[in-house]
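Q: Hi! First time doing this. I have a protein sequence and I read that you can turn it into a structure. Is that right? Here it is:
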Amino acid sequence: MKVVFIEDVPDVAEVGEIKEVADGYGRNYLIPKKLAILANARATQIVEAQKKRKARIEAETEAEMRELAKQLEGLDMVIKAKAGAKDRLYGSITNADIAEELSTSAGLVIDKRKIELETPIHEIGSYEIPIRLTKDIIPKVKLTVAEEEEKVEGKDKKEGKAKKATKPKAKKKAKAKAPETPAEAEAETQEETVAEETKPEGQEETE
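A: Yes, that's right. Below is the predicted 3D structure, encoded as structure tokens:
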């Protein structure tokens, strides 16, 4: 059967193309899914309308991509990572990391697949990263990979230990100031009574 495609079908046909397809493929898939219609006089009008709609959508998309490209072109961004000898990173910076940083720092949502990073970044340094928004719109961002500082973190840990060391002293002071329980008071009274009774004779008179 001969059909006219009213939607793009990857690896098969584009909008407006007229092709001969298998009857089952046309009746059971293309036509029910509204991807194609039978080739007849009315089909021409439908195809023209679909072409205009597609052209309008593409024009709107391109305008949006050009505006996004203006925001991306020359944008400076910094990603910090842990590094070892010779400025080698312990891990790597991938296109997913760059997409996340763009979203966090610049509020720009970019599909990681559009970020053309040939290989993951493994060293501290500056890089120019192309972003393919469309076939012809490819802005570039400037990425600086800097070493993550650990001194501040170490200082915080020391301060934390110092604070913890002072806690036992506070508990000792609190324990020393705690009031005597009834049992302790009674025991102390009994000790004083026994001591009074066992005093040598004559000591009371002297006192």
